[in-house]
Amino acid sequence: MSGRGKKIPVIGGGSAGGFPSAHTAKRFYRDAKVSIIEKEEKTLVPCGIPYIFGTLSSIDEDLFKVDYEKYGIELMAGEKVDEIKRGEKKVRTEKGREIGYDKLVLATGSRSIMPPIENSDLENVFIIEKDYEHTKRVLDGLRGKKKIVLVGGGFVGVELGDELRKREYDVTVVEVLPHCLQLVFDDEFCELVENKLREIGVKLQTGRKIERMLGKKKVEGVELDDGTKMDADAVIITVGTKKNVELAKEAGLKVDDTFGVKVDEYQRTSDEDIFAVGDCAYKFSFFTKKPSSVMLASVASMEARIAGANLFKPVRKNIGVIGTCSTAIRDTAFGVAGLTEKAAKEEGIRYIVGNATIPDKHPPAMPGMTRIKMKFLFEEEEGEIIGAQLCGSHIVGELANMVTLAIENRMTIDEVATFPAATHPCITAPPAFYHLTQAAEDARMKIK
Amino acid sequence: MSGRGKKIPVIGGGSAGGFPSAHTAKRFYRDAKVSIIEKEEKTLVPCGIPYIFGTLSSIDEDLFKVDYEKYGIELMAGEKVDEIKRGEKKVRTEKGREIGYDKLVLATGSRSIMPPIENSDLENVFIIEKDYEHTKRVLDGLRGKKKIVLVGGGFVGVELGDELRKREYDVTVVEVLPHCLQLVFDDEFCELVENKLREIGVKLQTGRKIERMLGKKKVEGVELDDGTKMDADAVIITVGTKKNVELAKEAGLKVDDTFGVKVDEYQRTSDEDIFAVGDCAYKFSFFTKKPSSVMLASVASMEARIAGANLFKPVRKNIGVIGTCSTAIRDTAFGVAGLTEKAAKEEGIRYIVGNATIPDKHPPAMPGMTRIKMKFLFEEEEGEIIGAQLCGSHIVGELANMVTLAIENRMTIDEVATFPAATHPCITAPPAFYHLTQAAEDARMKIK
């Protein structure tokens, strides 16, 4: 169908969920009126926010800039939807505007919340929000400061640490778990991350909790749970996220308090005319089919391309969360696809590990050659690949994506081991020692 | 089985076929006596040879260096096998040495041949051979020269052109077909290659044949088929390859004159105790099952890992040649996986094309961002992905490999379009505009 005469508004547009939903809807239903209702006037690229604090020369370089007209999408910026009137098939914005819909997509995302820490209302204690004006305030607030404490060693904390060092701030990351990125990688990869952070001068306090902020009006320091006191001119808190499900809840859609707006594998909510994608939407694991609390741009974007296509007829199905992500500290990238050992153990999945450390160019004398460390997990019984972790040069990002493809297709050890990877001296590992094949062969030898 | 008491020699070891065959054999049959019989004393990394002429600081940096002992493989270097005595299950070398086998692997490869061009016996007319001493002679022969004509605009010609320019030679590539890399890419990608070559100062004479070499004792120039004469201090010929199948033929194995030593999908020759892999071995297309004349390290390496595992029991199967390869000219890489439009047309395969040009970092303001151009082919009926061509930064190498994985798993347009690629500002495209998904969506819109 062409979608002629149909109205398809998408709530939320500056994310990996909203825009691709609208884009896909317009691709599939080219005569429909597709619009994005976005509460912000200016929208930031969410993953780019840490880079505003170092690499990028201004906050405006991180604006999500799309030629909406070119894609045939109407953008209503600065309009916050405060009610979905399902009976009338309309949404209403705070400004009182009413917008009718035939099919509605919720891409309301998630938001950062300030965790309950004593004195966190002091000046120069910040959280990171996906919000232009707020981010500008944080950026301004750091001006002239020296010592910064980052609370949380997840992706945002690690990336902010790297970026703030580029501007020569004195940076300490405080992480309550034993390691940074502990929820993402197995310990030996966390340690590689931490080594790299230390190498660029980021101080780490892992296994430590912030007890309270110190200071009177402005923050002057933090106190840790072991009594350690550290000076700080500013504190940035990168822990605590909440799914934006209030709108859906108030409209009477089924919402799971932990996992978000209930959707089926076609991204349909409990109302067949309303779809939900991204952080706000319920997800399930590719491996176990259990609900998943992962919030990733990769998953949001996949769900968007499913929802956008399915609006008037289900054609695409969600395969569940494989859970691939990557980050970089300077020239070193880190990637993970699928399950870690930790995750596999938690799920009671028996696995075989294959390791390999492989040059990213060949012969190894090629200038700029660095080695990539890989760890692969295969399910023991069927030999299917279920996960990988990687550390090395920037091609790690796409290697992690390759593994995701292999996982999605449930490739076995022997299939991965005989993968005919193209290789070239300047840009890849050698044919005789290619990453995927070598890690698979290493695992293969452990089959009894 | 452990392979105890079994002898497994591999003939040919400095290639993408020989070493991985031995390595895999040793992995699968750890108590077997695995050896490599290699005719050269010093073996070069074949794909690295062009880089000896520019990037690498000496020929020795391109030596294939492996700690054979660590892998439990015995290396017999400088031993050329001149007979396989199948009755006695022995091979004999030129030096008269006899080596028994239980299972034998032929990885005899291919060699360059001088095409029949008038006066090609003049001094300073060279071919490129996978041979240390020969390559050294070419390298020495170019010393002090200025003008070099490269005959052939395939991978080796293009890469040599790039490398020789790094040492400031005056370089002209003469290619008989209308474009460089014409047999590998569709025309618009060939043109990107040619633009890049011109940009770095390589002169091109495409659609032109060398009529004869000019000069008396030493080469002084070349004459083209249109009568054009060009000065040259040296000529390097990079066309003409022959499979090394003589040994197999003399031993009475079935050999196809065009496509090499006949093997089944387990890499077994017509003698069940002899396996063949790599350039010397018969291959078939993944797509059409027809014989394939492709000679690629990626394919050799895959076949090696199949043969090595299958020696005493077939466990791995050859899926056929997908045909992925990549190259780079300075910072720009070019990759192809599967079928081009040209190839699909020749085979009468109906297809849909999807195009996308996508940043390799995001937001686009990230320093060093370049755009990657992709072209995808999907088979029209089932919507399965059958090919891709890419041009852009060095991650193109792994993107081509990702496409190979997608092809191998016969993924459909909708599966590729909803692929949950992990993305990161420093190292990948944005989630809303990822290479694979966008090229797939573009194609998706062309389905009637």
Gyration radius of chain A (Cα, Å) is 23 Å
How much beta of chain A, percentage-wise?
A: 25-35%
Mean pLDDT of chain A: 97
Which assembly state applies to the chains in this document?
A: homodimer
Helices and strands of chain A: which structural class?
Answer: alpha/beta
Task: Write a structural description.
The structure is a homodimer of 448-residue chains. The mean pLDDT of chain A is 97. In chain A, helix 1 packs parallel to helix 6. Chain A is built from ten helices and 27 strands. The longest helix of chain A has 14 residues. Chain A starts with 6 loop residues before the first strand and ends with a helix. The first copy, chain A, folds into three domains: 174 residues, FAD/NAD(P)-binding domain; 115 residues, FAD/NAD(P)-binding domain (3-Layer(bba) Sandwich), CATH 3.50.50; 119 residues, FAD/NAD-linked reductase, C-terminal dimerisation domain (Enolase-like, domain 1). Chain A is globular and about 65 Å long. With 448 residues, chain A is of the alpha/beta class. At the A-B interface, helix 1, helix 6, strand 23, strand 24 and helix 8 of A face helix 1, helix 6, strand 23, strand 24 and helix 8 of B.
